[in-house]
Amino acid sequence: MGEENATIHDRLRIERERLGLSQAAVYQRLVVSKGTYIKYESGETSPTARHLAVLDQMGFDIYFVVVGERSANELGAEYSNLISAYSQCSDELRGAALAVLMSNRLKEVGAAKVVPRFFEETFGGGAYAHPLPAPLVLHDSAAEPPAAPGSLPGERGKPEKKAPQKSGTR
């Protein structure tokens, strides 16, 4: 059955299938029996307002289920909450979150590890392009020569001092 002629119970099933959820996953989350949920999808009874609120939290487009039209926000509650939380973070936390979320893409691209401002250049600025923190430099070879073998900290680049050998006979 097409979405345009679907009833509330049909649209409930359409949304569940769109989200890839089993009936069991939904009725367990709603804390109703299997029979009750089957009645929701068959049209024998309708979900309560509390159940619709839970379905909304699960990502169901409740406006579509009730009215039959896709809502303007097709992202669903989970993504809307994620975007809301992200928008309230500091720039540093946004950069860190984006780096974690994009870690799989970093592995695919590879160049992101060595190209400064990779996200800004690749994804074109905007609300989601925040500068990444400067790379951590463990040793700046141009500023100070490496330590000589056997030297103590702070004696970088100085030649190794050898203890004078005593000359004499026994």
From TrEMBL:
InterPro entries per record: Cro/C1-type_HTH, Lambda_DNA-bd_dom_sf
Coiled coil, from the record: none
Record-level Gene Ontology MF annotations: DNA binding
Taxonomy, superkingdom: Bacteria
Residues in HTH cro/C1-type domain copies: 12-52
Region (Disordered) location: 140-170
SUPFAM superfamilies the UniProt entry points to: lambda repressor-like DNA-binding domains
Name this polypeptide is given: HTH cro/C1-type domain-containing protein
